[in-house]
Write a structure and sequence with these properties.
By secondary structure, this protein is an alpha/beta fold. The chain contains ten helices and nine strands. Strands 1, 2, 3, 4, 5, 6, 7, 8 and 9 form a nine-stranded mixed beta sheet that branches. The longest helix is centred in the first third of the chain and has 15 residues. The two termini are 33 Å apart.
Amino acid sequence: MTTVNILSGGAAQGLVRGLSDAFRAQTGSGIDGEFGAVGIMADRLRASTPADLVILTQELLAKLAEEMLIVPSSIADVGRVETALAVRNRDPKVAVKTEADLREVLRAADAIYVPDTKASTAGQHVAKVLDQLGIAYEVASRLKIFPNGATAMRELATSTAQRPLGCTQATEIIATDGIALSGSLPQGCELVTMYTAGVTTQAAHPKEAAALIALLTGADRKELRERAGFAG
């Protein structure tokens, strides 16, 4: 069986997983790949890691196309993803409407679970927001940093802290058992990121990769994308 290899930001993992059966039924092909911080995935492609398609931020995918690593005509937007807050299922959701609310919620948390603050989209944004709120130094010892959002959320789900909180992209929160989407970041701290897919110039299975992109972005899959946390 042909297998399409993906390098993708963690934001798309739940959506790809949800489409794997439909893709196999349509093409007879399977899906394999790596999901993680977008910067690391881009560097994996640059280092010649075999991949048929990538799903990364729109900005990063455009750079890879300029570097002649992505076929420009294959590029298609998957959808927008917001960075949001997460809590364990057994904990009350937090209400955050203003920057002041967010500052107090973060100060009250005894553990804050986030993805890589240097290589991931959400992690970079969390670091920026903590600086913006003036509490980066205050909460530094409580940050629990993991390679990607999916791992951070799994760790949040099993956290033994009294008042843990997570912050990553909504798609990664929705895809993780044991935690709940608590709410959006307030105005002035929000981040909405467009994710985009493209076939690599060195794809071993370009036709199948293009078929998967069509499935990911098709109008008939809009409801699935929305359930996974993507907006149009």
